[in-house]
Every structure is written in structure tokens, then in C-alpha cells.
Amino acid sequence: MSTLDKPVIIGRSSSHFTRIARLFAAELHVDHSFQAVRDLLSKDPADYGGNPALRIPVLKTSRGVWFGALNASRELWRQSNPRPRVVWPEALDVPLLANMQELTLQAMATEVTLVMEKMAGAGEGTPHALKLRESLLNMMAWLEENASAALATLPPERDLSYLEVTLFCLVTHLEFRDVLPTAPYQTLNRFCQQFAKRPSASGTDFRFDT
Ligand SMILES: N[C@@H](CCC(=O)N[C@@H](CS)C(=O)NCC(=O)O)C(=O)O
């Protein structure tokens, strides 16, 4: 089988956005391979599967190249058979759920900036880094306060939702990268403990690619 017959996820095993795509591939039982991006400070789009944004994940399939975790997850879903019932972000049509998804993704993006700035040597004490940390703490407090009600509002007949996958990847990554102590977020931790029982979650544990 050529690589294009079999989807390729391009990313890093330590990246929370990449884990979204890896987790969907596992949930959907889509046979795929994984290509690790060696240097996240590279400025060559070719190192990111051609993504001009210089970001991961990217999914390569026989149909083309898909930039970003949501595009990758949807395409993996389209390739799956049978197709499980997935609740995608556009179905979250009440403020509680829509805001939960927005803040989960924003917290992930904010964490990326904090980690990348640190990796690039800018330090953690710049005015912008301090503001980002404050914003991240605010978002985490909001997510903790609203998680129970939001998760209970998701359609019960679903197999999976993008919201749950992203929330799991966010909280577990904060701990993995030691960005924030996560112990105070009891509701979010309870959710993660439950979600971690899925083979797709335990099979995609964060680790640093060598
Ligand atoms: N909108 C993108 C964001 C992806 C993203 O920010 N990925 C991080 C890794 S977790 C990245 O590529 N960081 C490199 C950088 O910030 O330069 C998605 O949803 O997939």
C-alpha cells in the first residue's frame, strides 16, 4: 500500500492538537501512519506537510492535505466505516456548549504560545506572557465551573464529541508540559479520569518523539 492509500498524520506525539487527530484515528479505527515533525522552530512549510501556517497536525490522504486538527478529524471520520455518531462544533448551538468549545480551543492555543515562547527563549516573565497566563487561568476557572453542566447537555446518543476530545487533550497536556498545576480542577480531572478509560485515550499518551 502506498503512503497515500493510507492516511499519514504529521505532528508530534507531545502536541495536544496532534493528539486530537491521533485520538480520532484510534476511535474511528482508521489505519494510518505517523510522521514526527522534528523541529517546531523550523520555518520550512515542507517540514509541516506543506502547511503554510507552520503548524501541526496535518493529515495527508489520497484526497489531499488537510491542515489542522478539526479538518483532520473530520476527514478521518469520513474515511471510517461504520461512522460513529460524532458531535462536531457547529452542532453546539447553545451558549454554554459553544463557549465551552471556544474556550477549550483558545486555552489550547494560549498554551501553545506560552510553550513556544519559552522554547524560543523569550522567557515567562514578559508582559505578554504574564497576560497569557492570566487569560489561561481565567479560562480554566470558567471551564472548571461549567464542565459538569456542559457535558450533561451534550446529546446522550453520541459516541463521541469534538468538545470532549479537545477538553481531554487540553487538561492532560497542561499537566504533561507542567504549564499549570491541574489538581485544583476537580471536575475536569474527574472527566479526564473517565475519558482516559477509552483505548483511544490510553493509546495516545503524550510522549516526546526522539
Ligand atoms: N488551528 C490549529 C492549531 C495547531 C497548533 O497550534 N499546533 C501547535 C502544536 S500543539 C503548533 O504547531 N505549534 C507551532 C508554533 O506555534 O509555531 C489546529 O487546530 O490544529
TrEMBL record:
Domain of life: Bacteria
Alphabetical UniProt keywords: Transferase
GO molecular function: transferase activity
Keyword Transferase applies: yes
UniProt name for this protein: Glutathione S-transferase domain-containing protein
